[in-house]
Amino acid sequence: MSRILVTGANGFVGRAVCGLLLARGNRVTGLVRRANAVMAGVDEWVDASRDFTDIDGAWSASLVPDCVVHLAARVHIMNEDAADPAAAFHATNVEGTLRLAAAAHRKGVRRFVFVSSIKAIAERDDGTPIHENYSPRPEDAYGRSKLAAEEALRRLGDHTGLEIVIARPPLVYGPQVRANFLRLMDAVWRGVPLPLGGADARRSIVYVGNLADALVCCATDPRAARQCFHVADCGAPTVAELVRALAGHLGKPSRLLPVPAAWLRAAGRLTGRSAQVDRLIGSLQVDTSHIRDVLGWQPPFSTDEGLSATADWYRSTH
């Protein structure tokens, strides 16, 4: 049995990770910002301080986990209200992360698993799947903050001996998903015609159950020490294939319009949304051979199984 501290334990991915850790016999503590937020069986630790500014004072002397899985982060904000978004991302995702990791080392923690993002490396591939040693080229403040956090954590690990493990997932989907994936499901459910029938670029995605399984391996497998892993489902569907599969599982028609990608890019330029259009129809395939080679990891769920579970949840809420 391992003792694992999970930050963001009440979130979309955090709940999946906590549930799997418990199912495999581990002792789990969830670090959250508000009380009564974690699932049954998880020991709750509430720290409402911004960006872990009071983490040392709040850390109980009796809490000495083997590993911290750090999921809490500032993610994409749809209606951004920060005066300086880049500074806000840096304060939480870089300074807060480093503050937490340094405190963990002082408390005797052996391993720190940082859940980064493929956006720390790229928004699209260059014709071949993106591997861990790909030259970084993040395109937004979120991606740049994740890359900066990775670099700071590696320096901390080199200096202290804390085992830093980095996981970079692409888009995560599953029951209780939010943001862009939920909006796509809403559109399919309502029968909205989508101009994506000609979107044939492939994009890697990862089911939350697969990501949770990989993160548990990162937290508990000795071979994961000081490694960086890309984590994704097997295969990479096109956006059109994804819409058709979702529609099938939702019992709805897939109303796809065969609009050429060049037209979509032109519309993006005219509306000032080129970045959003490029992310939607550009290729982003992720190479997951490293985690397979080092840990022998295989995703326990197929993409179709993940989409089916996601659609089942969505239907239950409508």
* Biggest sheet character: 7 strands, parallel
Rg result: 20 Å
Which regions are unreliable across 5 or more consecutive residues at pLDDT < 50? none
Number of strands: 9
Output the number of helix runs. Answer: 11
Distance between the termini: 40 Å
At CATH level 3, the topology of the domain at 3-173 and 206-233 and 287-301 is: Rossmann fold
Overall structural class, as computed from helix and strand content, comes to alpha/beta
In percent terms, what proportion of residues is strand? 5-15%
Tell the overall outline.
Answer: globular
User: Given this structure, which CATH class of the domain at 3-173 and 206-233 and 287-301 is correct?
Assistant: Alpha Beta
pLDDT averaged over residues: 93
Quick one: CATH superfamily of the domain at 3-173 and 206-233 and 287-301? NAD(P)-binding Rossmann-like Domain
Strand order of the largest sheet: 3-2-1-4-5-6-9
Protein name: UDP-glucose 4-epimerase
InterPro entries: Epimerase_deHydtase, Lipid_A_modif_metabolic_enz, NAD(P)-bd_dom_sf
Organism: Paraburkholderia diazotrophica
Domain NAD-dependent epimerase/dehydratase: 4-226
